[in-house]
Structures are given as structure tokens and as C-alpha cells.
Amino acid sequence: MRTRTIIMLLAALMVLNMNKAGGQSHWSQFRGPNGSGIAPDDKKLPVEFDESKNMIWKCAVSKGNSSPCVWGDRIFLTGYADKKLETICVDRKSGRILWRKSISAKKKERVHPINTPATPTATTDGKRVFVYFGSYGLLCYDFEGREKWKRPLPPPTNMYGTAASPIMAGDYLIFCCDQKTGSYLEAINPETGETVWKKEREGFAAGWSTPMHWKNNGVDELVIYGIWWMTAYDLKNGSERWSVPGLTDEPCITPVSGEGLVFTTSYNMKNNPEVIGLPEFDDLLKDYDKDNDAQLSLEEVRSNKSILSRYDADGEGDHPLWGFFRFLDVDKSGKITVKEWSKMIAFLNSFQQENALMAILPGDGKKETKVVWKHSYGVPECPSPLYYEGRVYMVKNGGIVSCLNAKTGKLKYQDKLRSGGPYYSSPVLGDGKIYVSSRRGVVTVFEPGDTLNILARNDLKERIMATPAIVEGKLYVRTEKNLYAFGLTN
Length: 490
Description:
The chain is mostly beta strands. It has 2 domains: 21-268 and 353-486, 7 Propeller (Methylamine Dehydrogenase, Chain H); 281-349, Orthogonal Bundle (Recoverin, domain 1). The two termini are 46 Å apart.
């Protein structure tokens, strides 16, 4: 009995040490340990914070949407300034920039107006830091900023620019490149940058979802959310293990796991109840048909801001009618008729993918993969879900937050955080509190549980796209211009 107790204690210490770096916790990839969004320690965190309260330091950084990657006393970010791609190392104690490495790209990738050339988050194995820029490729530095290896890659054919981040899984650096053609998943030796195995992802087009690493009945799997499908691969060799069809055609979120299930959202603008849908053609004529000929010219519709809008998104991602003019003007007459407008309706109706938060029970060779439950309201487009203590949380544009029972999918509540605007940053949790950031710059803090209890709304007055990191009682928030460290100062 005594021997068994000692073994159990040693095993517990090994698990604890896996989440430590020299006695310190770490947040070594997008959304921290295994992409869960949950801090690996229970140190006390502030509820209220801004530049005048509980701010430890503030560090000016270049433009970028990548999230903080933290190991020991170092924070790694990427940025874009003066037409150069930057890898930045910040001292976690002082907020001072320790080093900054810049590289030029032969050709800058095309990005969506809300995206940047520095959106994928860095990852680290505790010895080296790995970064990916769509305009350049993969780069590896040691913790002192010395380049260890690089792998230039052509910019992916990706209509919105890159966003998926590399991650460490076991002994491998994992890199997924989903693009218009030639998509692939690759396991890389982190020390040398050489390929260990590579899996072609035939049929998968552009995607923006970071891989998830987990154990499925003892087997290390990589779960990749690609266009239309979620697919799991064996970490050892890249062989496919299970898949789920019918998902979104523009995957942005990273799945999470809990209760032996994989939780993901699939966003379909056509079926999303919070989306402001297509207007009637007669209403468009009333607003824009200046010559009263029951048709619409390009000049007449140039002032139209949107015919399809995301709820409370400040106009971001809106679809103006003039953007569809060439598509709708079938007879090339320079006018859109009511008959041609039906092409827009048919186009939207062709979106058949799910609009739901889904709980997936993966197969393992003995049992088939199945969807356990679905929930079709409050589904976000970009923020990943959060699993914690038997519940799944999701937050979307307008600050609409939903909480569901993880096993059954029963809705506990759906409410508003009363911190509106677009949401791109994913929720994170530490010290029994959930932190979620709006694009407008408000970080809302609320308690996990069956009812919504908002603790604070903290307005940083700067645009926030990146997901925060939580390490040892410190909350690291990257805004459009700065990296902040918040913690209890009294």
C-alpha cells in the first residue's frame, strides 16, 4: 500500500511539472495548455483593471493579432512594422523588450482588413520559440533571439490571410497549412526543422483553425478543423482516425475537449438567428431606385452598406450590395432585376453547413464517431468555446454569452454581457473567473456557473483581437498598440 501511495504521489508531481517551467507555469501556445484556455495554476487574479488599477506594466508593441506565448520569464509575440515581420521577446517581470528580430518577405500575403500579417501565435518547447508568418514561412529562435533554423514557404492561397498557429504536440512541432490547393499537415523536428511526417489534406481548402492535441482513449491525436470536416490524425504518423462532416466552410475556431467529448462550433451565416438577413428586393428599390425603373444600377447601390450583416459587429464583415453586382448582373445589362436578385437568395440557401455548438464523441476503432448533441443559438464565428467543470461556454458578437451542460447540451443560460461589438478573442479562465475581450476593448469578467454573474467590465479603450494569456496570477492582454500585464498590486 505504501509503495502504491508513493507511486501515485510521484505521478501527480510529474503531471504538475508538465505545466511548469523552472518552477513557473507557462502558456506555451494559442489558448495555453492544449489550447484549453484554462490557466494551469490557481493564483489570484484581478477582477478590475485598467491603466490606473492593477496594471503592473505596459509595453508598446507593433501591429499584430497574435496572442502572448509565455514560458518562464519570457513572453513571445509577433508583429508587423515598417514592412517587416517581427518576433518580439518581452521580459515578463518588467515589460521590457529583451530582443526583437525582423525579417523581410519577398511578397506580403493578402489579408482581410481585420487581419494582419502577424496573426498566428508563437509556440515554444521551453528551449526554442517557433513562429509562422504567412508572408515568409516558419522560423525558430532560441530564447536569446539567435536564429536556429528557418523554412521559407510561399504565401498560402488564402483569401483572408493566415491565422492558424503552430503548436507543440509531444516531441513534434505541428504545422497545418490549409489553403486553396495543396493543403497539408506536418510534424516537424523542433530541433532541426526537418519533416518527421507529412500528410496531404486533399479536398481541404483555406482554413484558419489551430490544431488541437489530446488523448483519445490513450492515443495521441491531432484534431484539425478544416472546411466542411473535422478530422483526427494519429500523432505518431499522421494516419487518419476519425472525422465528422457537415461543418462550416470557413473554420476559424479551435476545438476543445472535456468529458471525453470534443466541442466545436460551426457557423453558418444563413442559419444564424442573430444575423441580419437579406432584405426584400422591393425594400431595396424603395431605398436606391432613383430613376424608378424597378431595377438597380451599380451607381444607385454604391451607398448601400450591407445586405447581410453580422449582429452588433460595428459594420465589420458586412456585405454591401455593390460587392455582388457583377455576380448578380447575369445578362450584363448594368442593372439588377428582381429575377436576378433571386440568384442571391439561391446562393445563400446553398449554405448547407451546420450552425451549431456541437459535442462529438470520437470513434476509436471500436466505436463509430457520433454527434451527441447540438445547440443552434448564440453560435460564434471566431471565438473558440471554453469547457470548464461540466459546462461549455461560448461568446459571440454583441457579447452574447451561452452556457450549456457539457454532457447533455441543455442550455443553462443565454444572456448579454452588456459589452457589445464584435468578438474575435476567445474566452480564457483563471482563478475561477472567465475573461472575455471585445474588439471595442472591454474585458468582461464573469463567474462560471449555471447563472450569469458579471464581476466587472474593464474598458482598456484600445482594440482587442488577440486572446489573453494567464500565468501565475497575471493576465496578459495584447491590444492594437500595447501588451499589458495586470495583477493584484495591493
